[in-house]
Design brief:
The complex is a heterotrimer. The C terminus of chain A is likely disordered. Chain A is mainly α. In chain A, helix 1 crosses helix 4. In chain A, strand 2 and strand 3 form a beta hairpin. Chain B has one domain. Chain C has two domains: about 200 residues, Rossmann fold (3-Layer(aba) Sandwich); about 70 residues, no CATH class. Chain C is elongated, with a radius of gyration of 21 Å. In chain C, the strands form three sheets. Chain C has a six-stranded mixed β-sheet, sandwiched between helices. Chain C is about 30% helix and about 30% strand. In chain C, helix 4 packs antiparallel against helix 5 and helix 5 packs parallel to helix 6. Classes of the chains: A mainly alpha, B mainly alpha, C alpha/beta. Chains in contact: A-C, B-C. The interface between B and C is medium-sized, with 34 and 35 residues.
Chain lengths: ~140, ~220, ~300
């Protein structure tokens, strides 16, 4: 799976890696038990300091998305419910930011929820079909 | 067991680099000295003006070629990782070789009899009789180079010290050089004993310039 | 002369390992001119440190001090456990460098430069250097003076990296290079630094390159360090806040680094413990590019209150 980094966005690189992997797991592109690149290999591929990869993998392990097995490598956690739980985490993050932004704009959570509902109804039917697809092809990490 | 190449004292690549740097001064001095040696009509003596002048000029050219410490090339050479003493040693090796090469034509002209032959051709009455008395001249020329070069290098090295250290030594060198360049004939009337004094004094000064130079060379600074 | 809050940074490498380079209250004056006035920072193995600052801030002076070409007039600077001067006197090729004002003579051939560098450095890799020359179609008997400005830089960079040094000091290494050549140079640098766990200090005006390559940022102005921070921390902890004028001070936990009065609000660059903290603010905040941060810190710094 490709991780595309944006060095100029002001977003920490380790966080971009974490998000990319979480997203991959949540979207079922990274299946449980998939082995992720070693710290050295990923650092080399992304051309970054290995310590940044370490930080990303540690955060992912802390969030129970991956597990680091000594001598073997880094693996996506083997839980059948992983995609859902990780997806929840990612969405909760986005929701928190949306609510915070809404509050800054003077809206209360209720108004935000109403608008989310309206947008969901208006959502591109094509997109809905895509998300209802039972399984996506499992790409190699 | 073979010494690791960079712990070797002698570095051919560095020497070659410096000799290439000294190519033009070497060429000029070789040519100038050779012409002088060929064409000078009077008996050559150890205290002739032009050989002394050429020695001083050659030394100044070498010092200028190498020792422009504010220059880009100097900074490049000094940041390659050569030990300071290695650079100092090779500076002198290259200067010595440059000198020998510059003196080669002169020595050949005198020792092969070419000068004598040329002077005879030009109807110089003292030749070929005095030719024998000139055989030692290349060595005297060498001696003047041996004095001038350490003096010149000592000068630029002291100038490369931080400002407060610059004064001592440089003025002494300058004073000596000016004195030497003044009319040599007039100055060196009493040949025999003055020659000995100069020889001893010269050896002392050369040692001071070389040893002091090596010490100061470790501490030189590139200030632009 | 304003001084910002000096925020100590987490260096990340095991503290037991000695730094590759350490400047401690380093100062250098030229007569009455203070080129550097007491700067302190460290370079740890595996790290690339970017030294930023306007022209005349003291970056070139720092480089010369680090290379042992100048002596400090105050404080000290150590590389690999030795004073920079001592290391320069001793030699050995553990420090690879490149910069303006450090160029070989134009008549020098590439082959001669290779021999020269090989003679000076204990670990010079002729193979690596030749590989570079082949990739860039440099011929061994080509003279340095015939190369373009960018080619000269990349050749000298390759020469320095082939030394396999422990400390790399690059002053504007990408000057004159097009974007793909710049990318290649910095990729090589990163690969070298990671593989050998060496360290590099880079100065450049191209901040977008710094965003790609740097682990640490040190900003110099008028000879002092006005800001230093790991880049990832800066991304995590520093944001620009649009704070309404007359809204009072920032809440606890936010440290202003820069303030700029604009129409109806203040643009405050502030540091907090992490990015979540900014979500708690009642106003918008944005992450910043390095360029924006640099400009804010150098042009509109906050006076230190002590």
């Amino acid at each position: 799976m490709e991780i595309l980094l944006d060095h100029h966005s002001g977003e920490p690189i380790y966080r971009q890696i974490v998000e990319a992997i979480k997203y991959g797991v949540a979207a079922n592109r990274l299946a449980p038990n998939t082995q992720l690149p070693s710290i050295r290999a990923l650092a080399e591929e992304l051309r970054i300091n290995p310590r940044t990869v370490v930080k990303a993998y540690e955060e992912l392990e802390h969030a129970r998305v991956v597990i680091m097995r000594h001598g073997q490598g880094v693996f996506v956690v083997n839980q059948s419910s992983t995609p859902v739980s990780v997806r929840r985490l990612a969405l909760a993050d986005l929701a928190r930011r949306l609510l915070a932004e809404g509050s800054r704009l003077g809206a209360d959570p209720h108004e935000v929820l109403t608008i989310v509902g309206e947008e969901a109804a208006r959502m591109n039917p094509g997109m809905r079909r895509l998300t209802q697809e039972p399984t996506l092809k499992r790409a190699r990490a | 067991m073979m010494k690791h190449p960079t712990r070797r004292i002698f570095q051919p690549a560095l020497l070659f680099f410096l000799l290439r740097k000294f190519l033009i001064p070497t060429g000029f001095t070789a040519t100038a000295l050779a012409l002088y040696t060929l064409l000078h009509r009077d008996l050559l003596t150890w205290h002739d003006f032009f050989p002394i002048f050429f020695a001083a000029a050659h030394a100044a050219l070498l010092a200028r070629s190498f020792g422009r410490f504010a220059s880009s090339e100097f900074a490049f050479l000094y940041t390659r990782g050569f030990p300071r003493d290695t650079l100092f040693l090779h500076l002198y090796l290259a200067s010595a070789l440059s000198t020998l090469v510059a003196l080669l034509p002169t020595a050949w002209l005198i020792w092969s009899g070419a000068r004598s032959g040329w002077q005879c051709q030009a109807n110089n009455p003292i030749f070929p009789a005095v030719a024998v008395r000139e055989y030692a001249i290349p060595f005297y020329d060498l001696a003047w180079f041996a004095v001038a070069i350490p003096a010149a290098h000592y000068t630029w090295i002291r100038l490369a010290m931080s400002a407060r250290d610059r004064l001592a030594g440089v003025w002494l060198v300058i004073a000596m050089i000016i004195t030497l360049l003044m009319n040599a004939e007039l100055f060196f009337q009493f040949e025999d004993w003055l020659g000995d004094v100069l020889l001893v004094g010269g050896v002392i000064m050369i040692s001071v310039w070389i040893l002091g130079g090596r010490c100061a060379h470790r501490d030189l600074e590139l200030q632009s | 002369m304003t001084q910002l809050h000096f925020i100590p940074h987490d260096l990340g490498a095991p503290p037991s390992m000695p730094p590759l380079l350490a400047a401690r209250n380093l100062s250098r004056s030229f007569g009455s001119k203070h080129a550097l006035a007491g700067i302190s920072f460290e370079l740890r193995p595996g790290d690339i440190l970017a030294l930023l600052g306007p022209n005349g801030a003291g970056k070139t002076t720092f480089l010369r001090l680090a290379l042992g070409l100048l002596a400090p007039t105050g404080g000290d600077i150590e590389l690999l456990g030795l004073s920079a001067r001592r290391l320069a006197i001793q030699g050995g090729g553990q420090v690879g460098s490149l910069g303006d004002g450090m160029e070989p003579p134009p008549w020098a051939t590439i082959a001669l430069l290779e021999s020269l560098q090989s003679a000076a450095s204990a670990h010079f890799s002729r193979a690596a250097f030749r590989r570079f020359c082949n990739q860039h179609s440099f011929l061994r008997d080509q003279r340095f003076g015939t190369l373009s400005k960018g080619q000269k830089r990349s050749l000298l960079a390759a020469l320095a990296l082939a030394m396999q040094p422990d400390v790399i000091l690059f002053d504007e290494p990408a000057d004159g290079l097009d974007p793909s050549a710049r990318r290649e140079l910095y990729d090589d640098l990163r690969a070298t630094v990671t593989e050998r766990q060496s360290g590099a200090i880079v100065t450049t005006h191209i901040l977008s390159d710094i965003e790609r390559i740097a682990d640490h940022i040190v900003i110099l102005q008028h000879g002092s360090v006005i800001f230093q921070c790991p880049l990832e921390d800066a991304r995590e902890q520093i944001r620009a806040i649009e704070w309404p004028t007359h809204a009072g001070p920032l809440p606890d936990g936010f440290f202003p680094l820069s303030r700029q009065n604009l129409e109806g609000f203040e643009l405050i660059v502030a540091r907090a413990s992490n990015s979540e903290a900014f979500d708690q603010l009642p106003v918008r905040s944005r992450p910043m590019t390095l360029e924006a941060l640099y400009l804010a810190l150098t042009k509109h710094p906050v006076e230190a209150r002590s």
